[in-house]
Write a structure and sequence with these properties.
single chain; alpha/beta; Aspartate Aminotransferase, domain 1; Aspartate Aminotransferase, domain 2; seven-stranded mixed sheet; binds pyridoxal-5'-phosphate
């Protein structure tokens, strides 16, 4: 067993235990070898020194770097190798970006293909064969109604910029201002995207407002905002949306759009119930409100369908797409019905809208997902992993709920010894969740947390994950939860705040 991994920027001084040596076939199948990554290996950099320099120089606003104190030097598929020689199964996948995992051969070939032709790498929004192919590939995946006559706008290369574009688009097209958004939503970090997101901390700290946002409760069973739960809770959420928008005395001016995630990711992996989403489509159609589906995280097969809205058979007016469509490089677009195309040249601009490498990598990724039906694979494998986690939940009091769709899975960590509320939910346990993440890392598993209380373990493995790798993830996660719970229980028994 290798030495413990210290966390230089962790003021508590706690140590991350060293991961178990990789022994499963999952690792072997995916192992980072000299043959797969390149023959010449330079000497490994000093991981601890790099981490120390990062902690000293990088901003306090850094995020993943705090909870995952590793220095990746090589990666392939689902496996990341640190500068210290340890290997990890990556269930974060660049926050859901890496549909094909790290350095997939088709992605590398596409990037090399562009480099070898001498094509320009940066061309603003000019037409190129690379862009043309990307658009063809993307449109081949869209709901037919959007593919037939849709328009695409290339945005600055982040999901949040595409959200800004979508908001501008629908406001310009309708001449209205308000946008309906949902509790728990996450749409990005720029001003407009923050305004329609649920978290108030950054808005409060910076004085950024929520503008013309009309906020409605997002339905969820475990912590139902109506205290009802189940299908009746979902119906109540739909009923409230309809009555608010239809009520002439409700004080809400007719909105330009409604923005919704088909599965709330950062909000705690909460799938929008199909019937609720269909009702949102009916309400918006009846009232001339543009329905914006934020598919930044759910897109390209992640949820077991090509697009998250496909589960409900809903066709939005606008789709915001990023992450996976760049094949691991930055790319973001909005796709929308032609009738909305009423803005003017330069209404949404940005220097970096022409990243040819990202378009080539993205086109290759989209084609690969389609040809290999990785959306269906994600649906099947996701159901198996979720089922196994639900079985675990029956014996593991630290798990309150397992939910999600496809390979977008959430495991809510709760107070193991607390009693349930009227709906059967136990209080969230964010400190225990942090311990689970640390124990998982120590076992060679990269996971992140999300949710309103930061107590939901989020699994976003690549869509290429194999059954053997899934078993390794399950084993490590289950061990991590048990180890964290045991330590948590012992500390609580000592009277120490856990
Ligand atoms: C649903 C959703 N929308 C928008 C964004 C913002 O994307 P980006 O971080 O690329 O700006 C995210 C990021 O996680 C997201 O999950």
């Amino acid at each position: 067993m290798t030495a413990a991994l210290t966390r230089p920027d962790d003021r508590s001084g706690t140590e991350v235990p060293a991961p178990k040596e990789p022994t499963t076939d999952g690792f072997a199948a995916d192992a980072v070898t000299e043959a797969t990554i390149g023959r010449q290996r330079s000497p490994e950099p000093d991981a601890q020194a790099i981490l120390r320099r990062q902690a000293a120089r990088e901003s306090s606003a850094r995020t993943y770097a705090r909870s995952l104190p590793i220095v990746p030097v090589r990666a392939r598929g689902m496996t990341v190798e640190g500068a210290d020689g340890r290997r990890y199964l990556d269930c974060l996948s660049g926050a859901g970006t890496l549909a094909l995992g790290h350095n997939h051969p088709v992605v590398l070939a596409a990037i090399r293909g562009v480099l070898d032709t001498g094509a320009p790498l940066h061309v603003l929004d000019l037409a190129t064969p690379v862009k043309d192919r990307f658009v063809e590939e993307l449109f081949a995946t869209l709901p037919p109604e959007l593919a037939r006559d849709g328009r695409i706008q290339f945005c600055g290369p982040a999901g949040t910029d595409a959200v800004e574009a979508a908001l501008k688009l629908v406001r310009t097209a309708t001449g209205r201002r308000g946008v309906v958004a949902f509790t728990g939503a996450y749409h990005g970090m720029t001003a407009g995207a923050l305004a329609v997101s649920g978290d108030t901390a950054i808005r409060d700290a910076t004085g950024a407002g929520s503008g013309d946002t009309i906020r409605l409760p997002f339905p969820q069973g475990y912590r139902c905002p109506f205290g009802i739960g189940g299908v009746r809770g979902e119906r109540a959420a739909a009923y409230q949306a309809r009555s608010l928008l239809e009520d002439p005395g409700g004080g809400v001016p007719a909105p330009a759009g409604m923005i919704v995630e088909p599965v709330q990711g950062e909000g705690g992996v909460l799938p929008a119930p199909d019937e609720w989403l269909r009702e949102m489509r009916r309400i918006t159609t009846e009232r001339g409100i543009a329905l914006i589906a934020d598919e930044v995280q759910t897109g390209l097969g992640r949820t077991g369908a090509m697009w998250g809205v496909d589960h409900a058979g809903v066709v939005p007016d606008v789709m915001v797409v990023s992450k996976a469509i760049g094949g691991s490089l930055p790319l973001a677009v909005v796709v929308y019905r032609a009738e909305l195309d009423r803005w003017w040249p330069g209404a949404h601009a940005g220097t970096f809208r022409g990243n040819q490498l990202a378009m080539a990598a993205g086109a290759a990724t989209i084609a690969h997902v389609r040809e290999h039906r990785l959306d269906e694979h994600a649906g099947r494998l996701g159901a198996r992993v979720s089922g196994a986690l639900r079985d675990l939940m029956a014996a593991q009091p630290a798990i309150g709920e397992v939910r999600g769709r496809g390979l977008m899975i959430g495991v809510e960590i709760v107070e193991p010894d607390a009693g349930p509320d009227a709906l059967g939910a136990r209080p969230p346990a964010p400190r225990l969740a942090v311990a689970v993440r640390r124990e998982a890392l120590g076992r060679g598993l990269i996971i992140e947390l999300g949710g309103r209380h930061n107590s939901v373990v989020r699994l976003l493995p690549p869509l290429t994950m194999t059954d053997v790798q899934a078993d390794a993830v399950l084993e490590r996660l289950s061990d991590a939860i048990e180890a964290a719970r045991a330590a948590y229980g012992a500390r609580s028994a000592d009277g120490e705040s856990a």
